[in-house]
Design a protein that fits this description.
This protein has about 230 residues and is an all-alpha fold. About 75% of the residues lie in helices and about 0% in strands.
Length: about 230
């Protein structure tokens, strides 16, 4: 259990928030400006939604600023982690979701530096035991959530029959933005099960991944991690 607790602390330090902060911190000055400018533009057009302006104007502004921000994030990530992309481009692109391989590299680096002592094998054994006894309730499939969403959609359908075209367009835009933002929020919420599975993946990569001295420091074996 002790090895599990010590090693999962390293894993949690390499969080998605850490990776996002590195993008804003380490990217080139030009891309930093693009990130903040596109985000500011998005918020500005959101505020203009309540002004007396043509619908197409602010809708185009929101769309262009959102796309610009996404492009800047993609380029800034390569700029901030340029050395990692040079060495592990294929792996980073394959495990791009949630910055997974970039975060793993941080995890492995902390492991090599010996910031926490522990045995990977012991942590994996305890993880397997915990996995078999884990209780994880998914709120997204709860009947009450399904009932509330169905009721909301039904009410919106009845109300829409009495709306003008302009109001309908505004509501549709809010719905699209709400779904997009909601998807981002829901996607950022991770269950304990998904966290443990990713942690297990990191441990297995660190244990079995062949490394060479040209790309990274040699991995410390189990005996070197025991203290």
């Amino acid at each position: 259990m002790d090895s599990f607790i010590r090693l999962i602390a390293i894993y949690r330090a390499a969080s998605r928030i850490w990776a996002a902060k590195q993008i804003y911190k380490r990217a080139s000055s030009r891309l930093k400006f693009g990130l903040w400018a596109s985000k500011a533009a998005f918020l500005t057009f959101e505020v203009l939604l309540f002004a007396n302006l043509p619908f197409f104007f602010f809708f185009s502004g929101v769309l262009v600023s959102a796309v610009s921000w996404a492009i800047c994030v993609f380029l800034a990530r390569k700029s901030a982690f340029s050395e990692e992309y040079r060495l592990y481009s294929d792996r980073i692109q394959h495990f791009y979701r949630d910055y997974q391989y970039l975060r793993y590299l941080r995890f492995r680096n902390d492991l090599q530096e010996g910031k926490y002592s522990g045995s990977i094998d012991d942590a994996l054994r305890f993880l397997d035991e915990q996995e078999s006894t884990e209780i994880d309730s998914k709120i997204s499939i709860h009947p009450l959530i399904t009932f509330l969403i169905t009721g909301l959609v039904a009410l919106m359908g009845v109300a829409a029959a009495h709306w003008s075209v302009e109001v309908l367009l505004y509501v549709s835009l809010f719905a699209v933005l709400g779904l997009w933002l909601g998807g981002m929020v829901i996607g950022s919420i991770r269950t304990s099960k998904s966290e443990l599975m990713e942690f297990k993946r990191f441990l297995l990569w660190a244990k079995y991944e062949p490394l060479d001295s040209e790309q990274s420091m040699p991995y410390q074996d189990e005996s070197s991690l025991r203290r």
